[in-house]
Structure formats: C-alpha cells, structure tokens
Specification:
Number of helices: 10
CATH architecture: 3-Layer(aba) Sandwich
Keywords: ATP-binding, Cell membrane, Membrane, Nucleotide-binding, Phosphate transport, Translocase, Transport
CATH class: Alpha Beta
Strand order of the largest sheet: 6-7-8-3-9-10
Order of helices and strands: EEEHEEHEHHHHEHEHEEHH
Oligomer: single chain
Distance between the termini: 34 Å
Pfam families: ABC_tran (PF00005)
CATH topology: Rossmann fold
Main location: membrane
Bound molecules: adenosine-5'-triphosphate
Helix content: 25-40%
Largest sheet: 6 strands, mixed
Subcellular location: Cell inner membrane
GO molecular function: ATP binding; ATP hydrolysis activity; phosphate transmembrane transporter activity
Structural class: alpha/beta
Length: 249
C-alpha cells in the first residue's frame, strides 16, 4: 500500500483546468519530486495533499486522494490531516516571535502545555532540522532575525514539531544560497528515513540529487512518473526528454 494515492484527480480555478486527471502513488520513506515548467500545476497538486486549496476562491476539485487508504476529504478531519501532513513554503515564513515560540506553536495549539515537555519537543525538532547547534544559545531571539537558510530550517523544525507523517515542500530552496540549499538537501535525505517527502522543485539537479521518484508535469498533465534515475536517463515521452534536456520550459 502506498502512503498517498491520488486517483482521477482534477483541479479547476473557475473554468480553468489546472490539473487533468492525475493518478499517482507516493511511497512512504521516499522523496518524490514534482518537476515541470512554470504554471503546469505542481503547486496546485502539492497543496491538494493537505487540502490547502479548499479556501481559494473559485477552486474546485474532482477525484480522490488517500492517505493510508483513508480519503482525505471524506474520512479524515481537516485539522487531523494538517497535523499529519506538514507544509514548507518557498519563502521562509517564520512567525515574528522567538525561535522557541515558533517551534512550540504547533504543539501548544494541540494542547501541550508543560514547559519541560515543550522544551524537549523544541530541542528535538531543531535537532532533527539540523539547526540546533546554530541556535541553541539564542532560542529567545526573534526568528526573523536569522539568515534565510536558518529561517527555512526553523520552518522545517516547526513542521516537524507536531510529529507529522508527510512533509510537503514547495520549492523550499529557491530563495536560498548554494550552501543553505545543500544543507537542506542533506537534511531531507536524513528525514526521509522517518517521513514521506514530496517536493516541488524547478531545479532538475536537485531532483536528481535527492529524489527517489520524479513526476514531470506539463499543462496540468502528469506526463511521466517513475524512478528518478530512469526518468532522467531514459525518458519515454518526447515531452519529458525535451524538458530535461533544456529544450523548453
Ligand atoms: N488562485 C488561483 N486562481 C486562479 N488561477 C490559479 C490560481 N493559482 C494557480 N492558478 C493557475 O493554475 C495553473 C497552475 O498553477 P500552479 O501554481 O499549480 O503551477 P506551478 O507548476 O506550481 O507553477 P510555478 O512553478 O510557477 O510555481 C497556472 O496556470 C496558474 O496561473
């Protein structure tokens, strides 16, 4: 059984069809990359996996997405879903509060009150996001006052703090320098041992470096989806080949 199963999935913004009958299975403890030119629907599909599009005006969907065999609109409460499926965005978006409070925010909203318990969650989450050593003496510092790369790892720590099962990342390194990018790639590689990771990236080298499977999207279609090495070394569809060899997009 796959961790996530996307079945006959369509998405519309008003009359515009952004996702066209996508079917794909996403495996546990793997990194799955979504690639494709701008506007092809990668973020729309990613955001569907934790129902983040539901409130967008004019948005509607058809089809189903299953998490551990449970349909996310029918069988799972949306708050429970958001706890199980965390999200990290392109632009680091820490809350304008201390590093500690950023990480404690989620656990507190889920009812964790005790100082010691919270301290442990904060430390563990920052360690798992490979940022603890850099901030452990500055936990009271405002999270918006550290570097962009550090902010992004704080956002990953914040996502980890509620103990999710899946982490969705929408171009998490596109605003970062190469050193921060490489730290986050190493981190994702570590995290996949425990989590299921789905990442949208414009950077094909990044997809080849870190992902197990890659899906290539074009104009809302999932054109090709398979093991990353196979997709890049042996694309079956001519459109995939043209894209990965830089002939369009
Ligand atoms: N809120 C919205 N209202 C109307 N149309 C939208 C909205 N969000 C996205 N779209 C349209 O849906 C299509 C898919 O957008 P989406 O952001 O999913 O693509 P993407 O592949 O992630 O693009 P990018 O790589 O540029 O982030 C685009 O044509 C976009 O203009």
């Amino acid at each position: 059984m796959s961790k996530i199963e996307i079945k006959n999935f369509n998405s519309y913004y008003g009359d515009f069809k952004a996702i066209k009958n996508v079917n794909m299975n996403i495996e546990e403890n793997e990194i799955t990359a979504f690639i494709g030119p701008s506007g092809c629907g990668k973020s729309t599909l990613l955001r569907a996996i934790n129902r983040m599009n539901d409130l967008v005006e004019g948005y509607r969907k058809e089809g189903e997405i299953f998490l551990d065999n449970k349909e996310i609109w029918k069988d799972i409460d949306q708050y429970a879903l958001r706890k199980r499926v965390g999200m990290v965005f392109q632009k680091p978006n820490p809350f304008p509060m201390s590093i500690y409070d950023n990480i404690a925010y989620g656990p507190r909203t889920h009812g964790m009150k005790k100082g010691k318990e919270l301290d442990e969650v904060v430390e563990r989450s920052l360690k798992n996001a490979a940022i603890w050593d850099e901030v452990k003496d500055d936990l009271k510092k405002n999270a918006i006052q550290v570097s962009g790369g550090q902010q992004q790892r704080i956002c990953i720590a914040r996502a980890l703090a509620v103990d999710p099962e899946v982490i969705l990342l929408d171009e998490p390194t596109s605003a970062l320098d190469p050193i921060s990018t490489s730290k986050i790639e190493d981190l994702l590689f570590e995290l996949k041992k425990k989590y299921t990771i789905v990442i949208v990236t414009h950077n094909m080298q990044q997809a080849t470096r870190i992902s197990d499977k890659t899906g290539f999207f074009l104009l809302g279609d999932l054109v090709e989806y398979k093991k990353t090495d196979d997709l890049f070394s042996n694309p079956e569809d001519e459109r995939t080949e043209r894209y990965i060899t830089g002939r369009f997009g």
